[in-house]
Automatic annotation (TrEMBL):
The chain crosses the membrane at residues 28-50. It comes from Halomonas ventosae. PANTHER family: FIMBRIAL ASSEMBLY PROTEIN PILO-LIKE PROTEIN-RELATED (PTHR39555), TYPE IV PILUS INNER MEMBRANE COMPONENT PILO (PTHR39555:SF1). Keywords: Coiled coil, Membrane, Transmembrane, Transmembrane helix. It comes from the Bacteria. The keyword Membrane applies. Gene3D superfamilies: 3.30.70.60, Helix hairpin bin. Pfam families: PilO (PF04350). This is Type IV pilus assembly protein PilO. Residues 75-102 form a coiled coil. InterPro entries: PilO (IPR007445), Transl_elong_EF1B/ribsomal_bS6 (IPR014717).
């Protein structure tokens, strides 16, 4: 049968009278078209069933590849700078040891108070009091606050503050107030809160 005759047969076909039970009597072109549609449906279903999970796994593997590449680059950069990082770490550890040595132990706090007293006397200041407060425990250190009140002229007070800041043990100064005294106001009264710190791992008995 020629192709023209087959095409004419398809055009003249009454599609409403088609019966699947008589598919063998359909024009061969219609049978071929139906076979192609069925094969296409089967292929699509197999692709969706088999390739869908594989595609998802591929996307996950690609995302993991990007992450691993990023980790690799980061670690490669760290490895390239390993010697410099070790040197910096050694410097930081040495600096930390130096700072820890500047923190007094519990037994050294009275000696620190004596040093502050001597600094005040060396600068010819009158000491009203140097009074310890209760300690406050922090995560890595113990804070020891104490109140200081001294009297003298401006230059001697400034020298006293510089001397306290230059002590070998760490002392921080807070809440400083200066109040004039006397008729001419040349003398001043200095009140402040000072704090020193003790490294907790050095303490056998932490308050």
């Amino acid at each position: 049968m020629s192709l023209k005759a087959e095409m004419r047969r398809l055009r003249e076909l009454d599609w409403r009278e088609l019966d699947i039970k008589e598919a063998g009597m359909w024009p061969w072109s219609l049978q071929l078209l139906c076979c192609l549609l069925v094969l296409g449906g089967i292929f699509f279903a197999m692709h969706w069933y088999l390739a869908g999970p594989a595609r998802q796994q591929l996307q996950q593997a690609q995302a993991m590849e990007v992450k691993l590449l990023g980790d690799y680059r980061s670690k490669a950069a760290q490895a390239a700078n390993l010697d410099m990082m070790r040197e910096q770490m050694n410097m930081l550890e040495a600096r930390m040891v130096t700072l820890r040595e500047m923190l007094p132990s519990g037994a050294e706090v009275p000696a620190l108070i004596d040093s502050i007293t001597e600094t005040a006397l060396d600068n010819q200041l009158e000491i009203d009091y140097i009074r310890l407060r209760d300690t406050a425990a922090r995560e890595h250190y113990v804070e020891q606050p104490f109140d200081i009140q001294v009297r003298g002229d401006y230059h001697r007070i400034a020298a006293f503050l510089a001397g306290v800041a230059g002590l070998p043990r760490i002392v921080t100064l807070h809440d400083m107030t200066l109040t004039p005294e006397g008729e001419n106001g040349q003398n001043l009264r200095l009140s402040l809160l000072a704090r020193t710190y003790r490294y907790r791992q050095r303490e056998k008995d932490v308050p």
